[in-house]
């Protein structure tokens, strides 16, 4: 494990970069600003390493990062309609930062704060635990929330992310990870040639605000059917209403599961490199986002601009707008309970 300084915020808070490594030569670098995954190097089928996540060279770029690249997202990943919901009969009003909606925790979510960090290595691999205490009322959310995120790079080229949180008041929590992947390597061509499989027979359709309608519909006979491997680019510009509303893929998939443990969520192959990414999670859903809002206004670590669809996100989560949808799995966390969630990104080659 290696630690280096990564700059200071305008408030004078020091930000560190911590690099985890394994015996295979893989590395994962995390910065304490936003508990952000900054680099992740993995081999291709010929043993050549490349960084497979988008990111920036400087703290200043991360601070003006409008795309949430690499960040830990909280308190609530994805959208809450109208920036409000009812809890215990009381209306909770949140910060609105996506039109009238609350997106990814608000104006200053968990992606835009400095986390405390401590080493947490085990026999499984080098690890880093980051902690953040969110005050009651921050971005409008009730309760003092204590959160920990642990990154672990294991011996089998897996990046495991474990989340824990506790509260002193009833609140809602939906933590997720927002890396943009490109298995050909950061700064490479678009992600459209990647082949995707998603372990979901159903999805939650959205309206024009990208808020779930409340329905759960089958993916069968739609461009959102990834129950068998298909190229991301094959149907991304289809005339289907859901594709039109999302500008491509920006949808929550209802994962097939029989219990509360880790289940496969997705498998992605980049044909040129032979890199394969498997995603496993304890969460009930996963947002597949095809980088539709990347606009080329910021350049990444390679110096190349991040243009539309140059990275994809697989954000494991509870469903968007769950606080306003009692029919969806609940995101309420109460005092005495512990929020726990695990997501695994496993890398292979073929």
What does this structure look like?
Strand 13 and strand 14 form a beta hairpin. The strands form seven sheets. The protein has a nine-stranded antiparallel beta sheet, with no helix packed on it. It has a five-stranded antiparallel beta sheet with strand order 1-2-3-4-5, with no helix packed on it. The chain has a five-stranded antiparallel beta sheet with strand order 19-18-21-24-25, with no helix packed on it. By secondary structure, it is mainly beta. The mean pLDDT is 97. It is globular. The chain is built from two helices and 27 strands. It has one domain (2-349): Beta-galactosidase, Chain A, domain 5, CATH 2.70.98.
N-to-C terminal Cα separation, in Å?
A: 29 Å
Biggest sheet statistics: 9 strands, antiparallel
Strand count: 27
**Spatial ordering of strands, largest sheet:** 11-12-13-14-27-23-22-17-20
Number of helices: 2
Unreliable stretches (pLDDT < 50, length at least 5) are: none
Give the SSE string. Answer: EEEEEHEEEEEEEEEEEEEEEHEEEEEEE
Tertiary shape: globular
| CATH arch. level architecture | Distorted Sandwich
What is CATH's topology name?
A: Beta-galactosidase, Chain A, domain 5
List the helices and strands and how they pair.
Layout: E1 2-8, E2 14-21, E3 27-31, E4 36-43, E5 49-51, H1 59-63, E6 71-73, E7 79-80, E8 84-87, E9 90-93, E10 102-103, E11 116-119, E12 125-134, E13 145-154, E14 158-167, E15 171-172, E16 176-178, E17 195-198, E18 202-204, E19 217-218, E20 230-231, H2 241-246, E21 250-254, E22 263-270, E23 275-281, E24 285-289, E25 313-317, E26 332-333, E27 339-349
Antiparallel strand pairs: 1-2, 2-3, 3-4, 4-5, 6-16, 7-10, 8-9, 11-12, 12-13, 13-14, 14-27, 15-26, 17-20, 17-22, 18-19, 18-21, 21-24, 22-23, 23-27, 24-25
């Amino acid at each position: 494990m290696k630690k280096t300084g990564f700059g200071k915020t305008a408030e004078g808070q020091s930000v560190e970069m911590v690099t985890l490594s394994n015996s295979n030569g893989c590395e994962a670098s995390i910065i304490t600003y936003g508990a952000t995954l900054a680099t992740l190097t993995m081999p291709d089928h010929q043993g050549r390493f490349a960084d497979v996540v988008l990111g920036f060279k400087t703290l200043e770029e991360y601070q003006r990062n409008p795309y949430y690249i690499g960040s830990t997202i909280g308190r609530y990943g994805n959208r809450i309609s109208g920036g409000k919901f009812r809890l215990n009969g009381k209306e909770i009003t949140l910060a609105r930062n996506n039109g009238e909606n609350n997106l990814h925790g608000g104006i200053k979510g968990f992606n835009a704060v400095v986390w405390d960090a401590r080493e947490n290595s085990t026999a499984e691999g080098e690890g880093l635990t980051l902690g953040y205490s969110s005050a009651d009322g921050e971005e409008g959310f009730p309760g003092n929330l204590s959160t920990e995120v642990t990154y672990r790079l294991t011996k089998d080229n897996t990046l495991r992310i474990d989340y824990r949180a506790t509260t002193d008041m009833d609140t809602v929590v939906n933590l997720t990870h927002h890396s943009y992947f490109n298995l050909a390597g950061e700064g490479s061509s678009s992600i459209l040639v990647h082949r995707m499989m998603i372990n979901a027979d159903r999805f939650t359709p959205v309206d024009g605000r990208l808020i779930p309608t409340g329905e759960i519909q089958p993916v069968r006979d739609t461009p959102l059917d990834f129950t068998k491997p298909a190229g991301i680019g094959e149907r991304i510009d289809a005339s289907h209403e859901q594709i039109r509303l999302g500008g491509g893929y920006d949808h929550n998939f209802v994962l097939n599961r029989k219990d509360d443990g880790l289940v496969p969520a997705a498998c992605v192959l980049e044909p040129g490199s032979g890199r394969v990414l498997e995603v496993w999670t304890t969460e009930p859903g996963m947002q597949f986002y095809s980088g539709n809002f990347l606009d080329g206004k910021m350049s990444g670590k390679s110096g190349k601009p991040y243009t539309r669809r140059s990275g994809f996100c697989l954000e494991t989560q509870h469903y968007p707008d769950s606080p306003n949808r009692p029919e969806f799995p609940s995101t309420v966390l109460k005092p005495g309970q512990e929020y726990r969630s695990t997501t695994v990104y496993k890398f292979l080659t073929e």
